[in-house]
Design goal:
Blueprint lengths: L1 E3 L2 E7 L6 H8 L14 H13 L3 E8 L2 E9 L16 E8 L9 H14 L6 E4 L6 H9 L3 E7 L4 E8 H7 L5
Parallel strand pairs: 5-6
Antiparallel strand pairs: 1-2, 2-3, 3-4, 4-5, 6-8, 7-8
Helix pairs in contact: 1-2
Length: 182
């Protein structure tokens, strides 16, 4: 659980079948273009999240704001998923993706509060030493959010589906970005 000036965030494991309809509406929304599922049908979303649920090194979670679904979070082990062979992973590296639900009533600072809640969740595990992300190089909005919570870009990498900006954030970098003395 993470409480901010915007409210309380909680995170629970995603139920691929129960949550698929909701996820489908999120991942096919125009604002989710970087999620690369714009043309997905409901069965496609069900299959993708069933695949993740069955994967030993990839996990999906539904984030709630004040008890209501508000974002999707994925965490993965970059030694086995997404970044295999694209960088030299270190012990304690955890990969992350997040997607904020589309809304007709945006709340100023909401997305930053979500990424902060996601990072709180990841660093709640003492084994997590560094969070790794690989957003599309053209996704300037997420680069700014990542920087705001302490991520440092390392280099561009070529993934099968995109050119990505490999970035890292250690626990100390995250705390410093939050203004917490380290």
């Amino acid at each position: 659980m993470s409480t901010t000036g915007i409210g309380t965030f909680t995170i629970r494991p995603l139920d691929p079948l129960k949550d698929a309809g909701l996820l489908h509406s999120w991942v096919t929304h125009p604002k989710a273009a970087y999620w690369m599922m714009q043309d997905a049908k409901l069965p496609d979303v069900e299959r993708e999240y069933m695949r993740i649920a069955a994967h030993e090194h990839h996990h999906a979670y539904l984030g709630l704001h004040e008890g209501r679904p508000a974002f999707l979070m994925e965490k993965y082990d970059p030694r086995y998923v997404e970044l295999t062979g694209l960088y030299d992973p270190e012990p304690g590296d955890v990969g992350m993706h997040f997607l904020v639900a589309p809304t007709d009533r945006p709340i100023h600072g909401f997305t930053r509060a979500v990424i902060t809640a996601v990072m709180d969740e990841l660093f709640a595990d003492p084994r997590t030493r560094r969070v790794v992300v690989e957003p599309d190089v053209s996704n300037k909005a997420v680069h700014a959010l990542n920087e705001a919570v302490g991520f440092v870009p390392v280099r561009e990498i070529d993934k099968p589906e995109k050119r990505a900006l490999l970035s890292f954030c250690t626990r100390d970098q995250f705390l410093a970005a939050r203004g917490v003395a380290v």
